Amino acid sequence: MIDHIVLLKFSAAATANDILDLERAVQALGKQIEGVEGVRWGISSSPEGLERGYTHGFIMRLRDDAARTAYLPHPRHRVVADTIGRLCDDILVFDIS
Questions:
Q1: Could you give the CA distance from residue 50 to residue 67 in angstroms, rounded to a whole number?
Q2: pTM higher than 0.70 for the full model?
Q3: Does domain 2-96 have CATH number 3.40.50.2300?
Q4: How far from each other are the two terminal CA atoms of the chain, in whole angstroms?
Q5: Residue 30 burial (CB < 10 Å; 0-12/13-18/19+)?
Q6: At what angle do helices 75-87 and 16-32 cross, to 10 degrees?
Q7: What is the domain partition of the chain in residue ranges?
Q8: Do 12 and 77 form a contact (C-beta atoms < 8 A)?
Q9: Minimal CA–CA distance to 60: which of 51, 68, 52?
Q10: What is the rounded CA–CA span in Å between residue 54 and residue 70?
């Protein structure tokens, strides 16, 4: 199992509707791409205040390395990744296997 963790620092131009649409698109990947075992989206709730501007994030749980290899270039993932690139000033991707 691989947890593909993505933290998002949205630009000031990103609207609440943009973020909601992105959330829906990220959640949909769980049903659209083989090997995605689960998706969890959320807003930081940490009381520590160490987010450094990253307000939202998601965890894409992938079955194995082969699933990640198929997921990354998948056309539906590329659309979501392009949207993230357009809406965010910065992203952080961290995989745990």
A1: 31
A2: yes
A3: no
A4: 6
A5: middle
A6: 160
A7: 2-96
A8: no
A9: 68
A10: 27
